[in-house]
Specification:
The chain has 174 residues and is of the alpha+beta class. Helices cover 54% and strands 20% of the residues. The longest helix is centred in the C-terminal third of the chain and has 30 residues.
């Protein structure tokens, strides 16, 4: 089963737009293999720089996504974590029954009262302090409460989508 069996890509893109409008996060919908199904571009300049750098992708983005998604998949619950750059990442697992089909969420805001791991990011991307400052200066922060509210919203939206899908499957079997 694929996410596009549940909704067409265009409707997953609409959910990403809702997530961004509600939170400011870089939204993403991933399939069960961790591949973004929508091709949505990141809106945060630091995330963009990380994702467009092979070392950044390999050492920051991919392992963070894999670890947090694994935790969400295992727990069947949304997980709020911090990626290797120090930015908030929210992952909500998508299950149809007991079958894991993907994840929805977002990343790219700085946890309130915290900051980007500048030394790690600078070394990984091979950039200086001035460039790092330019990439991070306009990144908003997010409180733990707001992150929890966003995770709850995404879960409610996913639960609604899956409920409708299951109902349509049930009606189709009759």
């Amino acid at each position: 089963m694929n996410l596009t069996d549940i909704l067409p890509v265009e409707q997953w893109i609409e959910l990403e737009k809702e997530i961004h409008a509600r939170s400011g996060l870089n939204p993403s919908i991933y399939d069960a293999d961790g591949v973004n199904i929508t091709g949505t571009v990141t809106r945060n300049p630091l995330c963009h720089a990380i994702k467009n750098n092979s070392e950044g992708q390999a050492l920051i983005c991919s392992p963070s996504h894999q670890n947090i998604t694994h935790e969400a998949k295992k727990s069947f619950k949304p997980v709020i974590g911090v990626c290797h750059s120090g930015q908030t990442k929210i992952v909500v697992p998508i299950y149809v029954g007991v079958t894991f089909v993907g994840a929805a969420g977002g990343c790219g805001l700085i946890p309130e009262g915290s900051g980007v791991d500048g030394l790690f990011v600078s070394k990984t991307l091979g950039i200086g302090n001035k460039r790092l400052e330019d990439l991070t200066k306009d990144i908003p922060s997010i409180s733990q409460k707001k992150a929890q509210d966003v995770a709850r919203y995404i879960k409610e939206r996913i639960d609604g989508i899956i409920s409708i899908y299951m109902l349509l499957q049930y009606k189709g079997d009759k």
